[in-house]
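Appendix C: a fully annotated inverse folding record. The material below is reproduced so that readers can follow the format used throughout the book. The structure is listed first as tokens, followed by the designed sequence.
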């Protein structure tokens, strides 16, 4: 078993083994478990009672966090003409048509989100092998395939996140930084949980939210009480 750092062990000592914390307790405690050397990212991991092999149980969605993520997302936009100009004005990091498609096809993925106009999706669709595994493929369901690319860029830069269940029915997303107040983290967590719960498919039987944990970058996980989905201080 890999040896844990002193910082990790100190953080783990703050967490009661086997205890399931309410969301409010967890976001209060999580601020104390982050690295003292940098502003840790706060991550949430969920285990859902769905079968991702079934199309109607492939949970995927977006949510705008009330207080953002604490980082500025790098956004590229596949667009030409007036749409490209609008994307640049909205703050997109890289904008282009065929030349950008070729660049990504060659393996360049130094960005956090990709947006496309509908008319270019015929060409962008060929990037599935590059973008798909990284959850970066533009998709109408997440608002990243749209004629209004400027709004999409503004939303993403403002703290909009997207999430998708993996093959093992796990779902991951971030809710901010350790420097956030507990209230800010609580409101971000509540917004994300509300959206995940809203997306519960009617065909899913049994318990939907099976397991949940929150952690900092490189830090120990804090188990959440899945019977409590409201964040109340």
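Designed amino acids, in order:
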């Amino acid at each position: 078993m890999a040896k844990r750092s002193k910082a990790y062990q100190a953080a783990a000592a703050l967490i009661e083994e086997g205890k399931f914390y309410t969301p409010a307790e967890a976001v209060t405690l999580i601020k104390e478990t982050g690295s003292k050397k940098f502003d840790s990212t706060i991550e949430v991991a969920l285990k859902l009672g769905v079968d991702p092999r079934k199309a109607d149980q492939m949970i995927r969605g977006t949510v705008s966090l009330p207080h953002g993520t604490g980082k500025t997302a790098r956004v590229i936009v596949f667009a030409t003409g007036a749409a490209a100009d609008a994307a640049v004005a909205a703050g997109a990091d890289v904008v282009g048509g065929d030349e950008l498609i070729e660049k990504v096809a060659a393996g360049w993925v130094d960005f956090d989100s990709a947006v496309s106009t509908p008319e270019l999706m015929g060409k962008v669709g060929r990037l599935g092998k590059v973008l798909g595994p990284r959850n970066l493929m533009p998709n109408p369901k997440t608002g990243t395939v749209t004629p209004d690319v400027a709004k999409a860029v503004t939303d993403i830069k403002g703290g909009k996140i997207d999430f998708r269940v993996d093959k093992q029915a796990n779902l991951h997303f971030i809710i901010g930084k350790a420097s956030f107040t507990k209230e800010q983290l609580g409101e971000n967590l509540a917004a994300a949980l509300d959206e995940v719960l809203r997306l519960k498919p009617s065909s899913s039987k049994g318990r939907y939210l099976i397991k949940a944990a929150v952690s900092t970058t490189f830090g120990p996980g804090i188990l959440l009480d899945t019977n409590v989905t409201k964040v109340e201080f």
